[in-house]
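Q&A log
Question type: sequence-to-structure
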Amino acid sequence: MATVMTVTGPVEAGSLGRALVHEHIVISYAGEELDPQRTWKPADTVAIALDKMAELLDIGFRTFVDPCPIELGRNPELYAEIAQRSGMNIVCATGFYTQHLDSGLPFYWRAREPEEIAELYVAELTDGIGDTGIRPGIIKAASGLEVTAAERRVLGGAAIAQRERGVAIITHTENSRHGDVQQEIFAEHGADLSRIMIGHQDEQTSVAPIRALAERGTFVGIDRVGLELLAPDERRADHVASLVHDGFAHRLCLSQDHICTLTAPRSSYYVPPEQQQARAARQAEIDWQVWQRPYTYLATDFVPRLLQRGVSEAVVESILTDNPRRLLTGS
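Response status: OK
Response body:
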């Protein structure tokens, strides 16, 4: 039977259950560990994560995919502890983030050819991350507001590694842009498009570009559910219902891109002085949407919107169970 690699070992396709395909336990940015105000402790994250995983397990979720890129605080040993103690299947990633805003894609790797990038990804997928022995189960790929030459090489590397190791690719698109470019680069390098999820498509104002991605054979991610700072959930629900009614339920994946806990004591992005007061006024709302809300929000608050739009419970269950299984295992 087909399997997916989790941080505690391979899991058979039939044991994955309901899955969240794009969530995070922690995200960190280079340099924050130097901040004298930083007080983050791994044990605190473990305690919070165990409570949140228990809530998910109680409503039938069995798999949690954390596609944190290599350079944004990926922490496989932390994930493994949480998985072992909670019983949740946790899948982590190999792969780099975007060059956008210089928040990812380390300088050295911007100079590499796709084959060199694939060599790193294949090594992690085969032998594990560093000396941890923990193997990723997916590849993360990403592009920014514009797809830079370096990002194109990294996307090509992801496709080559996927072709060799037969794993899923889960992508980040900035502002829902350039999913079609990602698809084209993956296809040019021989990737299996049916094992790719083009992510963050829920900022599209029209369903047409999402449908076009699905028509070419990839999964599409409506995977920032609850982040109404970026797009309204009512529109997300409209998009999902439209895709279902048009016959693309089998190409949809749902998730929330939610973070379990923050590690930084301050904002990781610069806020100009003239915007700081407005930001402070919204901080509670931002915190709730980004990291404080339960992971169960998708099931408790978003799924009812889909049911109201005529999406059946059976279809919702298939989107949460069958589609992630096919994405992650190919079966």
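Response note: The longest strand covers residues 61-66.
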